[in-house]
Specification:
With 536 residues, the protein is of the alpha+beta class. The chain folds into four domains: 1-227, no CATH class; 228-329, Immunoglobulin-like (Sandwich), CATH 2.60.40.10; 333-409, Sandwich (Immunoglobulin-like); 415-534, no CATH class. It is built from eight helices and 26 strands. The strands form six sheets. Strands 19, 21, 22, 24, 25 and 26 form a six-stranded mixed β-sheet that branches. Strands 2-9-8-4-5 form a five-stranded mixed β-sheet, with no helix packed on it. Helix 2 packs parallel to helix 7 (194-222). The radius of gyration is 36 Å and the shape is elongated. It starts with 7 loop residues before the first helix and ends with a strand. 31% of the residues are buried.
């Protein structure tokens, strides 16, 4: 049965989806804390309204039973409704007490009425998890919530699943390697700011209130409260949420209030005909697209449904209803060794994730000033810049999520290092000719570059020259060499050298191995490195 009122489930399901989405994308900044505080207040208002609605439903049920002659079977239904109401109120009072105690333990409110400990995590974790399961309030909460569900199923003959689940039993976390071994308390309240913890409890309150709402409506139908009596009709929409991260599915239900199951309306949005179920409710969904967001990361959009229904006189009447929603700009998380800038023509490893999309995340990347090489892991790519600035546009299932821009810096030149007998020679002291056994040369990568791009920081000197000089002339009898190896033996040469002779070692060609395993030439200054020969 549908009525002229919007049910608590209609209002709460949107709130629940928004809370869970926001929790996934949580980055604890002042702006986010304020939004969570406002969001929690909105949810609490919705829960209060839903509770009032459910209280009104109980009154209607009791009145209907009395008006229908207090039949024995309907008296039992009214009794079940009353017990459900009392149990739900008891459960809600307990959860509200938890939130109040958390506020007190984190400092209460300041003189302006703001939470002093809005960002506080430690006190929340100590209170909710405790030192063990015997004194952690979250474990007590889990027990009470699941006892509530057991009570509901026993008295109503339903089979609602448990509300407070450990991660291994929760479809959201059971396949998450980082979360699946956590229990209910840990996954919901460990390292969680006060405002987020309050929102978690408020979300649990919506689940409790939704169960109550559903059963109250079912009890009302059983005593005839749902008899179809129509004297006015109004088209309404109930959306799961008006705030939709780009790339995720927007879902809503379109209906005529007080519609009849014997006269199902016809509905469409534009050229799309909606499927209408046996209760006269049409379902509409689509993937929300991104675009031009405002300063708060929101983009307002609307859609319009047409509903054709027969009036009591048999004539067809057309109604229209327009619904607005807000596309929320998802947070794009970039993880890399150096996010502020990338190295030119290198395979910069970057992990691009959008936590708000969850399992819906199926990214595509369109680069400008760079190329992209994908890996076998979703969201992990190599960005190879080809210009001074690289821009990466992130799409999900064809919908633009957002863009990230990176500065690009040149690869720093390697340092040329020459060693004699494996040691660096002090140019002030030189080396004795009799001690000269071999000369080696290496190209050493810049330390920061090597740390950030180890796969792109492998160098070797493939051509280098050794010259021997006496005074201002080349030493007769000692030839120049352009070795292919990075170490050369001086056997047979050292005995020809005299005091004050010099050896000049000059790099001619240096190669760098990139992340693909290919070698490319690196231009380096061909400046000789001098080794002085001193008297034995």
């Amino acid at each position: 049965m549908a009525t002229g009122k919007e049910t608590p489930r209609q209002r709460m399901i949107g709130m629940m989806y928004l809370v869970l989405t926001a929790l996934l994308a949580l980055q604890v900044s002042s702006a986010v804390i304020e939004k969570f505080y406002a969001l929690n207040e909105s949810i609490e208002t919705g829960v209060t309204n839903a509770s009032q609605y459910n209280g009104d439903r109980l009154v209607i049920i009791q009145k209907a039973v009395a008006e229908r002659g207090n039949r024995s079977d309907e008296i039992l239904i009214a009794q079940h409704a009353k017990e459900l109401r009392e149990k739900t109120q008891e459960m809600r009072a307990y959860m509200e007490k938890l939130k109040t105690e958390m506020i007190v333990k984190t400092g209460g409110f300041d003189e302006d009425g703001n939470l002093k400990g809005a960002k506080e995590e430690t006190e929340v974790e100590v209170y909710m998890l405790g030192t063990n399961k015997s004194n952690g309030k979250a474990y007590e909460l889990q027990t009470k919530l699941n006892e509530y569900v057991a009570f509901v199923n026993k008295t109503s003959g339903t089979s609602y699943p448990l509300i407070a689940l450990d991660a291994k039993d929760d479809p959201i976390y059971q396949n998450n390697a980082d979360q699946k071994n956590k229990d209910f308390a840990q996954v919901n309240f460990a390292q969680t700011p006060l405002v987020a913890a309050m929102a978690v409890i408020s979300d649990l309150e919506t689940k409790v209130t939704n169960i109550e709402s559903t059963l109250m409506n079912q009890y009302a139908l059983k005593v005839g409260e749902g008899d179809f009596k129509v004297n006015s009709m109004k088209p309404i929409v109930r959306a799961r949420s008006k705030y939709v991260p780009a790339g995720t599915k927007y879902e809503a239900e379109v209906m005529m209030a007080a519609t009849s199951t014997s006269q199902l309306p016809m509905m469409n949005v534009g050229a799309q005909k909606l499927t209408v179920n046996g209760e006269g409710i049409g379902s509409y969904n689509f993937l929300a697209g991104g675009g031009s967001y405002n300063a708060e990361g929101l983009m307002k959009k609307t859609w319009t449904a047409q509903i054709k229904v027969k009036k009591p006189n048999g004539q067809d009447t057309m109604y229209t209803v327009t619904e607005e929603y807000f596309v929320v700009k998802p947070v794009i998380q970039m993880q890399s060794a150096a996010l502020s800038s990338l190295y030119f023509n290198c395979g910069n490893k970057v992990d691009i994730q959008v936590p708000a999309l969850g399992a819906e995340y199926n990214p595509e990347f369109k680069p400008t000033g760079a190329s992209i090489k994908t890996t076998g892991t979703k969201g992990r790519v190599y960005i190879i810049p080809t210009a001074a600035t690289a821009k990466i546009a992130v799409y999900n299932r064809g919908q633009l999520i957002g863009e990230e821009t990176f500065k690009v810096k040149a690869i720093p030149k390697p340092t040329i290092e020459v060693r004699v007998n494996g040691q660096i020679v002090d140019p002030r002291n030189g080396i004795k000719s009799s001690a000269l056994k071999n000369i080696s040369i290496k190209a050493i990568a810049d330390a920061d570059f090597a740390a950030n791009q180890p796969d792109d920081a492998i160098y070797k000197v493939v051509e280098w020259e050794i010259e021997f000089a006496r005074g201002k002339r080349m030493t007769p009898g000692l030839s120049k060499m352009s070795p292919a190896e990075q170490m050369q033996s001086m056997s047979g040469k050292s005995n020809l050298l005299q005091d004050k002779d010099i050896i000049l070692v000059t790099p001619k060609k240096v190669m760098r191995k990139n992340y693909l395993g290919a070698w490319e030439e690196v231009r380096v200054a061909q400046t000789p490195i001098i080794i002085r020969i001193v008297e034995d």
